[in-house]
Amino acid sequence: MPEAAWTERLAMHTSRRGLLARVGRLLIAGTAGGVVARAIRPGEAEAFHFCGHLYTTASCPHPTGLPRVDAHGFPLRAKDGAPIDDLGRRIDAQGRPVDESGHLMRDGDGRPLPVAPRATVCANAAALYGFKPYTDGSWHRCCHGHVRKLVDCCGYHSKRINGDAALTGYCYQGRKVFCVTYYQTQVPC
Amino acid sequence: MLTALALAAAGLVAGATGSWSPCGFSMVDTLRADRAACAAFALGAPLGGVITFGGLAVLGAALGGGHAALGAAALIAVAGAALDAAGMPIVPQIRRQVPEPWRRVLPLPVAAALYGVLLGMGFTTYVLSFAVPALAAVSLALGDPALGLLTGVAFGVGRAVPIVVLAPLAGRAVGMRAMSAMAERPRVLRAARAAGAVALVACAAAFAAAPADAATRPAVVARSATDPSAGPDGSLAWQVPGAQGRLLRGGALQDVPGGHPALGGRWLAYAVGGAIQLTGADGTTRTIAAPADAVAVSDRWLAWRTPGPDRLHVLDVSDPAASPRTVASTSAAGSLSRPSVDGDVLVYALATPRGSEIRAVNLRSGRATTLRRQRGALLSQPAVRAGSLLYVRVTDTHQQLLRGPARRRSVRRDAPLLTIRSTTQRDAGDERGYSPQGRLPLDQRRHPLRPSRYVLWSTALTTKAAYVTRLRTDRRAPDIVRIQL
Q1: How many domains does chain B have?
Q2: CB-CB neighbors (< 8 A) of A62 in chain B
Q3: Which of A133, B347, B373, B484 is a Cys-bridge partner for A126, taking CB atoms 3.0 to 4.6 Å apart?
Q4: ipTM, interface predicted TM-score of the complex
């Protein structure tokens, strides 16, 4: 009889009117909480060509396709988050190309293959299309069970990479979105 | 490219000549004023062309046609051109027509589409020029499905355009004048056949020129080989991975008693133990105590690389009293390529995480120049000969062997001798289950391109040929290929 005991204890410590008011507040709180809970329920974000990206601006040019970057904007391979250079080669901490097993790639004499440049994806897009790059604001959404940061590559230009009018997006001070990247965190959601 | 253009032109003209057939005239009056029917016909005709010419090309490929049949294709084209130019009657003629009841029992657009397919196929009704059988034979002989597809589409477009242009005008004065000219002036048809003959001659010329294109294809000159070095007499030396060098001179292959062999001027140089051995054409020898993992030599200069971190050193071999001097170095994070020397010019590539560039040093004056630099690309493996520079450019999409003058200028102006895909596997550009909108143009294909299994590597250059090592991504032995200049 735990439920009867709970109601009896509550009734003994209050008047009938006070009891009704308290129950009413609980009901309202429960209903509002349900709405809020539904609104903030974790789940896959609606998106265009990759999860979390809510509008039509295309990807920034990226060595392997999907514009996944690290926390500093340098390119990562989308499928596994491996760091890559501007040529799309998987690299080690020194920037040297490695194979899928993580071993250094070597020439016929056993020398490691040369390092290639590695710049941020936004900087390379800006160099390619001729504008000064900025990464301003961002937004976070839940994608594939982890929080994903959507990062716009911004600049002072009227057209985006798609070729049509650029939008403000997460850019500040009159800058507009040229292309988009994302950073996949390890934060579960 | 030239072959494709010539075949497309010949296909267009051959298709258009078919407008003089009974079926061609019938179509003009059948489709008149019905835009949907005209559009359906315009779609059906190229499809028919693809069925015939593309199908023959696929058959030719299965029979092993290939470019070995270019001579036969050229002869066929010339024969067709001669017959059309002479206005010879078409024999044997195909005295068949498309089924007339279709226009009565089927909705007109459906009938028009089917008529288009039949006429686009070329051999289902009357043939009006020898260009049609000539192109069919050429498609079979070449055995190139892409060229067959192109020829078929061009033939179908040529078949459709006169009809869909004339059909809406058939009831007007201008249309009637055009139809009268076609029907009553034989010289118009003769002119069309003559144009077809000209296009076929262009095809024959393109086929004849094609072997020159083929000469630019890479030919394997050494297997299990890397780091080529070419001498002024056409001899070629290379390193066998994990072993010593080899020398191909005057058609004879011989082992070199050391590694990293290099040819230049009168010298053959190679590394042995902790020294570099120089052997002159006159039998003179000289030994320089220097550990080296790459060597280059000219008449006057010997250059070599020492690793960890990389350094390039040179020695004036014409001066017995000269001592080595260091001309280039880099930090541990960077690397220097093999050196290449021609006359007094040394070239090498510097690669660092910030970028890469190809540099030249005038060994007489000591003046250094940056010859090539490009953001986002890896420029490496330069070779220099007679004022020309050969090097490898790698981006996220391609690997290229480029040649240009050995002076400072833009990479974009250099001529690609060989282009292959990069070793990078791209993804689809969009995530599974999401819209493909927003993918980069590069990724807008059904499946991502497969990466190359080769890494273009060390190079050598003569005035007649370029050489490049191909490393294998599957760890099989590298080889050296030659591209004739």
Answers
A1: 2
A2: 440
A3: A133
A4: 0.73
Confidence (pTM): 0.65
Task: Verify that B166 and B313 share a domain, yes or no.
Answer: no
Q: Do B54 and B111 fall within a single domain?
A: yes
Q: Where are the beta strands (DSSP E) in A11-156?
A: 138-143, 146-155
Compute the C-alpha angle B268/B272/B274, nearest 5°: 125
Residues in chain A: 189
Q: What is the pLDDT of residues A26-48, one digit of tens each?
A: 444 444 444 444 444 444 556 67
Q: Which two tokens stand for residue A17?
A: 């009117």
Set of chain A residues whose Cβ sits within 8 Å of the Cβ of B421: none
Where on the phi/psi map is residue B129: left (φ > 0), alpha (ψ -120 to 50), or beta?
A: beta
Q: Which domain holds residue B9?
A: 2-211
Q: What is the 3-state secondary structure (H, E, C) of B368-418?
A: EEEEEECCCCEEEEEEEECCEEEEEEECCCEEEEEEEECCCCCHHHCEEEE
User: A132 to chain B nearest CA, in Å?
Assistant: 15
Q: Which of residues 302-341 of B touch A (CB under 8 A)?
A: 307, 333-335, 337
Are residues B205 and B276 part of one domain? no
Which residue out of B260, B348, B378 would a mutagenesis test of the A interface target, given it has the greatest number of A Cβ atoms within 10 Å?
A: B378
Residue-wise pLDDT for B395-420, tens only, equals 999 999 999 999 999 999 999 999 99
Q: Assess B241–A contact: CB distance below 8 Å, yes or no.
A: yes
